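Structure in, sequence out. Go:
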């Protein structure tokens, strides 16, 4: 039996797909959610190149009781609805509801969320990327064995560093 491996781009959410809130605040309602400029065009381009788009996000606000898992699912449902209207929904969304002290295997920097994608698709790691803005995102990508793209900050440990999300299109072709 043969199967075709899928190339994928894994995205962090807050600060990559949507704008981060000021201070230590986190998005806990759809009303607070604002897409990063040009994210629809960027996701459409990546999908047009044959990549799966997969969201992987730590959401410790659930463990911290700042929001419920149901509230997170509602935010993601609304996000997907808008992305579908713009022809660029995520192929999968995986999230970790735990806090760092929980010691789970799904919270980035562990590669657990990325590994979950393999339950649905055989991933072509040699041609896949993790796009994020944090050390945890980069470590998850490295641990999983894919290329890493750090957005917003130069990072010697990342495979690529770019100033903004739009710049990833020069890498992912």
């Amino acid at each position: 039996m043969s199967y075709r491996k899928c190339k994928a781009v894994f995205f962090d959410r807050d600060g990559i797909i949507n704008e981060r809130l000021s201070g230590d605040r986190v998005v806990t309602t759809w009303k607070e959610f604002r897409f990063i400029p040009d994210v629809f065009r960027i996701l459409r381009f990546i999908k047009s190149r044959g990549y799966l788009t997969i969201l992987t996000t730590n959401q410790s606000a659930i463990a911290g009781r700042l929001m419920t898992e149901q509230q997170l699912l509602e935010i993601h449902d609304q996000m997907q609805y808008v992305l579908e209207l713009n022809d660029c929904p995520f192929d999968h969304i995986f999230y970790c509801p735990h806090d760092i002290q929980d010691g789970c295997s799904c919270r980035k920097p562990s590669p657990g969320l990325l590994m979950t994608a393999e339950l649905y698709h055989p991933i072509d790691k040699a041609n896949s990327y993790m796009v994020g803005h944090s050390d945890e995102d980069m470590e998850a990508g490295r641990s999983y064995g894919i290329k890493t793209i750090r957005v917003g900050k130069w990072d010697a440990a990342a495979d690529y560093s770019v100033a903004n999300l739009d710049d990833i299109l020069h890498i992912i072709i």
